[in-house]
Design brief:
By secondary structure, this protein is α+β, with helices and mostly antiparallel strands. The chain is built from eleven helices and 15 strands. The strands form four sheets. A five-stranded mixed sheet has the order 13-12-11-14-15, covered by helices on one side. A four-stranded mixed sheet has the order 4-1-7-8. The protein has a four-stranded antiparallel sheet with strand order 3-2-5-6.
Length: about 375
């Protein structure tokens, strides 16, 4: 084969590869006084503005994104305080237009994933607007009981309709990145996709299908991690005893696994903290005083370190000479116990009485000591 031809082919392939990492977005927004449009890239760690431009006198604009991933990833068009979600990959050349409220009236062409996302997102946003409208009406003081009951029925029916449409979209488009986006959308005041623990089946279905379609997608590791946490949480919750709290079994610094239920019959403070975060030192100092007062009377602390570095965790435990039970699975924020106990901040704690009932949460100082005295 001609060497010149080979060299030219390699050059063209390199050029094509270079070009394929760029995204171009052309569009037209009209109907408002806002004159600037932004493009935001969304990753697992941050949201970053990658381009911005002023609309011309006809409302036209062009935005570009360099170094886009080879598989679709999430971007937002930001306009008039609204975020329009797009799923873009290197080489995309799309067109987006809107009149008036951009989020409710936009159209997009040139990207299959973004078009699918639009199909899901526009009715979902409309549904949330209606839900919030019902909530606002329900709080009005002048409503009669009959009117409130009618709104409550309407609210329940609307939520069910929105969720059914959401799940239908996820199943019908499970092999698309748009399905991942739909997985993580939540109605107001609703932590679950559908039914709590059983939601893992939808995550697993989407992960398996997307892996066939986009094996290099950066969203797959996130999905797998989420599935692992949900599986572990289900396993934990299946061990819930009549004591009304999920079992925890974790190793201490010597590798000995210690069960929370091994402390049954005692007053237990289940305490979550992070040695690496460095914000639990003062709390530990206060707990040591309480522990020394009441330990011999039947009080115990089961402290769970939400850390990933065994060395850092052990060093702090030893330096502070913590006298109670200290355990950690070293999964950090990925530890399933955080979900099982709905821990949203560190430090955080639960007080458990001698019969296994949780009787207090996040008690500190005098308030904690007062409750321990009662239970002792």
């Amino acid at each position: 084969m001609n060497r010149f031809f080979i060299a030219a082919t390699v050059f063209l392939m390199a050029l094509s590869s270079c070009q394929s990492s760029k995204v171009k977005i052309t569009g037209r927004f009209v109907g408002t006084d806002v004159k600037t449009v932004y493009l935001e890239q969304v990753t697992n760690l941050k949201q970053e503005l990658v381009d911005s431009v002023s609309l011309n006198e006809d409302g036209n604009f062009i935005l570009t994104a360099e170094k886009a991933e080879a598989s679709p990833s999430l971007y937002h068009i930001i306009y008039d305080n609204e975020r329009i979600p797009l799923l873009l990959q290197g080489g995309d050349n799309i067109t987006i237009n809107a009149a008036g409220n951009a989020l409710r009236n936009y159209t997009v062409e040139g990207s299959n994933e973004s078009e699918l996302l639009m199909q899901f997102n526009k009715p979902y946003v409309e549904g949330i607007i209606k839900v919030n409208d019902i909530i606002s009406k329900y709080s009005a003081e002048e409503l009669s009981d009959e009117e409130r009951n009618k709104l409550a029925v309407e609210y329940t029916q609307l939520r069910q309709e929105i969720k059914r449409a959401q799940l239908r979209f996820i199943i019908e488009h499970k092999e698309n990145i748009a399905a991942i986006y739909a997985l993580y959308q939540r109605l107001p005041n609703d932590p679950n996709l559908f039914n709590g623990d059983s939601d893992v089946i939808y995550y697993r279905t989407v992960a398996e299908a997307v892996e066939q379609n986009y094996p290099e997608s950066s969203y797959l590791p996130v999905l797998r991690s989420q599935i692992a946490r949900m599986d572990a949480q289900i396993s934990l919750l299946s061990q819930v005893k009549e004591t009304n709290f999920p079992e925890i079994e974790m190793p201490d610094m010597y590798g000995n696994k210690i069960k929370l239920t091994s402390l049954e019959g005692k007053v237990i403070l289940l305490h979550f903290w992070s040695a690496q975060a460095g914000n639990g030192n003062a709390a530990n100092a206060d707990l040591k005083e309480i522990y020394n007062k009441y330990h011999d009377l039947g009080f115990e602390i089961y402290q769970v370190g939400i850390d990933t570095s065994k060395a850092a965790w052990i060093n702090v435990v030893q330096e502070q000479k913590l006298p109670w039970i200290s355990v950690s699975d070293l999964h950090g924020q990925g530890s399933p116990v955080l979900g099982a106990y709905n821990v949203t901040k560190l430090p955080s704690s639960y007080l458990i009485d001698r019969t296994g009932n949780i009787v207090g949460k996040d008690l500190e100082g005098d308030a904690l000591e007062k409750e321990i005295k009662k239970l002792i």
